[in-house]
Amino acid sequence: MIKRLLYLGMAVGLGAMAILGGCSSAPDKIRIGEVTRSLFYAPQYVALEKGFFQEEGLEVELSTIPGGDKVMSALLSDGIDVALVGSETSIYVAQQGAADRVVNFAQLTQTDGTFLVAREKTDTFSFDQLKGTVFLGQRKGGMPQMVGEYVLKKHNIHPQNDLELIQNIEFKNIAASFASGTGQYVQLFEPEASRFEQEGIGHVVASFGKESGTVPYTVYMTKQSTLDKNQDTIQKFTNAVYKGQQWVASHSPKETAEVIAKYFEGIKPEIMESAVKRYLEQGSYAADPILDEEEWNQLQDIMNEAGELKEPADYTKLVNTTFAKAAKEGK
């Protein structure tokens, strides 16, 4: 489904002029489309709230577009200028033969952000305990599910044979489904994992981020034509992202939670702090925006294991580290 929708999005957008590219001078406004609203993206919200984009002379319009396919469709049809989504989506677009390829230029998160939550508390956990159970996973073809299956296979568990894998529930409904009694294990992002622990609904027994290693999990990307025509603007944008990353790395989880609280109304402060702390401790927030080739290759290994990689994806064509390196060097 995700690849079919990506194809439709390309059909709409490949012939269109980039919104940014239509301006005679560098624009002061950038429209970001994030794939979900998540504490996983804390450095982005810090950059917005601490005025780092404004310091760079940019006005940012942020919208949440659920689903990687929908984010890509919006990007390709010029509904947004920059997408914040998993790098696998840029590979899916490339596999469809896009003339104006989608390029990753600034990495935000560098590990998987999900956790294995068990309904029953256990003093000792091993992945063997999943065999014969009902596992509530994520959507097929997306990074959470691919990483989940990659980790299970790493522990000699075949997802389709050794357990009952459920992956037909919408992302937004997965936590609620587990809370209502579906599954013995579930793969969850924060803050749901911390909230479930506090409420006694479930217990975190493993981290998929720790198990799968460093990958370009969530990255800012745009069309090649946009990069070509608006290098100054993209550089300013990347500078602001790096400032957000530095701020989060140098402040306490509590301070970060307080700064970004307005983006997560209804979530208790202690839950937000717990979630940010967990992500910081396992290195989920990228320290800088540079997406290196080793991470890219790990992503391809995960996609290949899931049967979602048609052919190797060229790092030199789908990743541009020029802006990230310049931001880190303060240029």
From TrEMBL:
Q: From the Swiss-Prot or TrEMBL record, state where the protein is found.
A: Periplasm
Question: Signal: present as a keyword of the record?
Answer: yes
Gene3D superfamilies xref list: Periplasmic binding protein-like II
Q: Which keywords appear in this protein's UniProt record, sorted alphabetically?
A: Signal
Superkingdom in the source lineage:
Bacteria
Alphabetical GO CC annotations of the entry are: periplasmic space
Could you tell me which PANTHER family the record lists for this protein? ALIPHATIC SULFONATES-BINDING PROTEIN-RELATED, TAURINE-BINDING PERIPLASMIC PROTEIN
The entry assigns this protein to a family as follows:
Belongs to the bacterial solute-binding protein SsuA/TauA family.
Its recorded name reads SsuA/THI5-like domain-containing protein
According to its UniProt entry, this protein's organism is Brevibacillus panacihumi W25
